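Q: What structure does this chain adopt?
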Amino acid sequence: MPTPTPTTRPRATGRVTLSDVAALAGVSPITVSRALRGERTVDPALAERVKEAASQLRYTPDPAARALASRHSSHVAVLIPMLSNALFVDLLEAVQRTLRPAGYQTLIGITHYNPDEEEQLLREQLQHRPAGLLVTGTDHSATTRALIEGSGVPCVHVMELGNTPGVYCVGFSQHAAGQAITEHLVQRGHKRIAFVAAQLDPRTLQRAEGYRACLRQHGLYDAGLELLSPLPSSMALGSVLFEDLLREHPDCDAVFFCNDDLAQGGLLAALRLGVAVPQRVAVAGFNDLSGSDQMLPPLTTVRTPREAIGEASARLLLALMRGETPPAHSIDLGFELMLRASS
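A:
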């Protein structure tokens, strides 16, 4: 069908409106709105016609006007600690891939693991009247919790589990994962197992608790074998901490690093120092980040389902935004031990 000829021209001043696009495309304004949001219910031929008309008129949607007209916006606010960690990049990719076909865009805020910064970002994003919220973790300041509860905006917490009534979350047990990887090292015969961590965010501390619980159960826990740094996690820091650990505790025979970048740095330091892994000291990490399976030796680690968490949390949020009652408040997607040559 040929593109209809507009019966009226867009106004000489001011913004091109949804109605202008509808008139040029020969469809209703609601069809234009749905087509430009990418909703799959719109016939592909009509959607293409709408996009051609919008392009011809150089139409730019006004999200503020849309939010005012529909009493909610078309964006979802997402708060994550950082973008330099591939874990959160994988999660965001899955969130956006799930929300976009439903007509929602993401507005990302980076908290840098700072409770005050998280609180300020949440205040700012709530001013834009988001349709939904995705926030990392369940450990928040009292003010942040009050802001979420008082906003009336559907919210899903990611990467952790919880049992608070009315709080929705998607993730896995950080405690159980830390306990499981430590148990693996114990079962390999190791007695002097260290825990090396950085950043010290709530999820890292939960892994530490799992490590402690396992070693206490076996009568092997020694608080002196914990090396905790508040610095950001990195390969360079992992290398330094590994050297510090062996210098201070030469009898250490295994190391559980709280994140793979630290463990990768530790393995590189072992190569440089001529420390045999796993014969002299076993090494394990967490998250199964890119490159861990290519290390020398390949890194034993915990594979975390961040893409699955991103998709499941976005689907749960979509249900909440539609006013549906999900069958469960907490979705546990588990974890997987990736047992490789470093242990």
